[in-house]
Amino acid sequence: MAIPPAQRRLAEALTTLKKLQDDGKTAIKSADLNRLQRESLVMNGFLRPIVKGWYMPCRPGEEGGSTPWYAAMCDFIRGYCTERFGDQWHVSAEYSLFLHTGKTLTPQQVVIHTPLGQNGLLKLPGNCSILDYKTKDFTPAAKIQLVEQIRVLALPAALIRVPAAFFVTYAQDAHIALHQLRDASDLNRELLEGGHSTVAGRLAGALRASGRKDLADNVLATLRAAGYVVIESNPFRVTPQPLTFTRAQSPYVLRMRLMWQAMRETVLNSFPIEPGIPTNSEKFMETVEENYKTDAYHSLSIEGYRVTPELIQKVATGDWNPDRNDSDAEIKNAMAAHGYWLAHTAVKATIKNILSGANPGEAFRRDHAAWYRNLFSPNVDAGFLKPSDLAGYRTDKVFIKGATHVPPSQDAVRDMMPELCDLLEAEASAAVRAILGHFLFVYIHPYFDGNGRLGRFLMNAMLASGGYPWTVIRIEKRANYMAALEAASSRGEIPPFAEFVASSMQSAAI
């Protein structure tokens, strides 16, 4: 069968787009593609304009979603600013600290400091913008670092430059940043070079409030030895919750620990009293099995925005027709259903182990990789996935459809998953293990696919550890469910999610 020229051009354009994405580009510069490639990709819905000369990959038929923009935003900031300002730019102190501390939410307005700026505002998708602030005394290169490939102020310089209000408005981020300091040397050097006696008093008070007494004393002694009068003051409105770490840790681990501490009391107040381990575990497991069909039916998956070799092949051979071809979708649905049954069986084995006395967190640590393998092994058998896709945690970025929260990098996953298991092991409340376990699992998004299903398996295994019934998140409530998770991930608000799961559990029990 002859392949129409337009479809042949699209296949060639998709091949180029895939190579760009494989090279790490999530924002595509106009010059990266020739005119015919750009026109073909835009016309078929695979590219959407950001600003003149820049595009973001997207899925055909989903022009209104925000996910493509949040997937491309950091890459666009880096590429656009480098194109305009070379290496004469860095982001603001506030955004620098967000990146240093592993904050996954990009601010609506990103302020760029550069001597080449014009104090101009560039409007972007998602009601976002870039302000290029013209600065006279540009920061020396030695005080600028790359974090997530974004030019940021080094941690001590950023801490000195943020206003006192940062410690009130972004207390958790400030707390994490202070724990990222290995010692006081670089901070003292910055303070002495700038003669920042007032800032020194504020940072000494902040360090002491964060539990870093030795660093606070060092700052005060050093500045006073140099002849400065330093008055210590605590800029936090509420004293931060203590952390057990005494040395710098992964910012992602620190953030998880702080979120767990801050959210657990709210979860406890949202849930009914824990029933306790059931005396008749066999009857409890029978109830779990009775919920299987309903649970499997209502399960959902989350997809990303990447060009695949399979898509390119379909277009190149003339098999791509988004309006008519649904056979592959039907086969994949069957494989997903079989994988769900296999994973559900593995989760039941984990629950039985927990009901027999195993620590729930330890059981999850040991078994969750098997849950994932069972979930997707049918897709490997059918040829939809490669055997290597079962290896374990993801090796690239992922993005959550419809969410402003961008999951942490693949490197951060390696720190965060062991910490999640540690938190589950140490937690006494089954309700807290269930709610925060599910929330943080999806927040981390450790796998390329299946994170929602695995998160709900984790939630139900932890609920079972306290004798709570298997709880189905129904498809009719999907919008409420996703909104509640988004509130927790993007704004740190756990009450909507805790209340949603509690009401879903109680509704199922009626």
Question: How many separate domains?
Answer: 3
Number of beta strands:
9
Strand content: 5-15%
**Which class of secondary structure composition applies to the elements?**
alpha+beta
Topology:
Elements: H1 5-22, E1 28-29, H2 35-43, E2 47-51, E3 54-57, H3 67-85, E4 90-91, H4 93-100, E5 109-114, E6 120-124, E7 128-134, E8 144-147, E9 150-153, H5 155-161, H6 166-169, H7 171-180, H8 185-194, H9 197-209, H10 213-225, H11 251-270, H12 281-290, H13 292-298, H14 309-316, H15 327-355, H16 360-381, H17 410-426, H18 430-444, H19 451-464, H20 478-491, H21 495-509
Parallel strand pairs: 5-7
Antiparallel strand pairs: 1-3, 2-3, 4-5, 6-7, 8-9
Helix pairs in contact: 1-2, 1-14, 4-5, 5-8, 7-11, 8-10, 9-10, 11-17, 11-18, 11-21, 15-16, 15-19, 16-17, 16-19, 17-18, 18-19, 20-21
Describe the structure.
It is built from 21 helices and 9 strands. With 510 residues, the protein is an alpha+beta fold. It folds into 3 domains: 5-65, no CATH class; 71-225, 2-Layer Sandwich (Beta Polymerase, domain 2); 251-317 and 326-509, Fido-like domain (Fic-like fold, Orthogonal Bundle). A hairpin with a 3-residue loop joins strand 6 (120-124) and strand 7 (128-134). Helix 11 (251-270) crosses helix 21 and helix 15 (327-355) runs parallel beside helix 19. It is flat.
List keywords for this structure.
55% helix, alpha+beta, Beta Polymerase, domain 2, single chain, four-stranded mixed β-sheet, 510 residues
Briefly, what is this?
The chain has 510 residues and is α+β, with helices and mostly antiparallel strands.
